[in-house]
Amino acid sequence: TPMEFVVGVLMEIFKHSAATAEKITMTIHNEGSGVVGVYSYEIAEQKSIETTQAARNNGFHLQVRLEEE
Q: What tens digit of pLDDT does each residue of 13-26 get?
């Protein structure tokens, strides 16, 4: 998945600033995963669905994982 797409998703769906989105994207790139936010289960699930749909609609295989805090 292109970094530009990930940054865009973090800004659009997760409401991060450009700087924060770029930092999270680099963490994901370098470490294989990263925390994009802490939400109630319902909100996390909705954001996960939106992200997965956006990725698939653009032909990317971005994976989203929900974890309990």
A: 999 999 999 999 99
